[in-house]
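Reply to dn_fold:

You asked what the input looked like. This is it:
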Amino acid sequence: MAGRPTPTSYEAAGVDIAAGERAVELMKSRVARARRPEVVDDASGFAGLFDASALLRYERPLLATSTDGVGTKVDLARRLGVYDTIGHDLVGMVIDDLVVCGAEPLFMTDYIACGKVVPERIADIVGGIADACALAGCALVGGETAEHPGLLEADEFDLAGAGTGVVEADETLGPERVRPGDVVLAMASSGIHANGYSLVRHILATTDLTLESEPSELGRSLGEVLLTPTRIYAKDCLALIQAGGVRAFAHITGGGLAANLARSLPATVDAVLNRSSWETPAVFRVLQGHGDVPQAEMDKTFNLGVGMAAIVAPDSADEALRLLTSRGVPAWHLGDIVPGDGTAALH
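and this is what came back:
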C-alpha cells in the first residue's frame, strides 16, 4: 500500500524564508549609515520613501535615473569568498553615471538574486552597497533579495541596482557645452572597476594565470587586485561643478576611454588624448601580456587607469587639478578639444 506523500513546502523547494529574515536583521545597522535627511521611514517596508519637497529649492528640477549591475565580476567575488566590496562596484556603476549630467545623487535601490540565502553573505553584500552609498552621498532606500534555487547554484549570485538624482535644468552638463580649446582631465581609476571581466575570466581560463598568482609587478595576488572596488567619483565631480568651469563628464565603463568620452562630445569637435600622459596600471599590463591581447582590444574593453574624465574650460583646468588632488583623486591633463567631427582618439 502506497504511503502518504510528503507534504510540500516552500523550504522543500529550496527557499528559506527564515534565512532571508536573518539577513535583513544583519544588514540593518549598515544600511542605516546610507541615509539622507529626506528619507522617510515606511513602516510596511514595501517601498522606500523620499521627501520630494527637497526639490523645491530648484527652479526646474530634472530627475536623472540610471540602472546597472556588476557583471561577471561577481563570479570572482564568489570564487574568492569576498563579498563586502562588490557593493562598491554596483554603486560606482550606477551613481557615477548620474553625475555625468551634473545630477546630485539622491537615492538608490538594489536587487540581489542568489541560489541560496546565506544571511552573513547577503549582509556583507548589502553592507558594501550601503557603505558606498554613504561615500557617494546618496541614500539606500530599499532593495530586494530573491532566492532562485534550481536556476542558480547555492553559492551563485547576481546583483543590480537603480539610482535617482536631480539637476537644475539650465545647469545640465553635456556635449552642447563643449568648445574647441577646452581641456580634458583624467581621474585615475582604482583598477579594472566592473567592466571587462568576461575577458579577464577568459584569460584566467586559457593561460597560466590564476587568482592565486602573484606577478612581481603587482606585489600581491592577482585575485586581490582584481577585486579592488570601483572608485566612486560622485562627490568629487560635484565639487568640480561647484568650483565652476566644467563642461561635461564621461564615465569610463564598457567600451573604454575613447568610446565613452566621444559620447560627451558634440559633432563639431574631437578629443585628442595623449597616451603618454599616464602609465597604464600594472594589472592591465599583466593581463595583456599573459593573454596576448592586442592594444586595440585593450583600449575598447578596459578603462586602462582612467575611471572618469572631465572636460573643463581652459582657464579652469589648473584649479580643477588642484581640487582633485586635494580630495585624494590622482588627476592629470589627458588631452584637448579641437575642431572635428565628434570623435575621441588616443595618440
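The radius of gyration is 22 Å.
Hope that clears it up.
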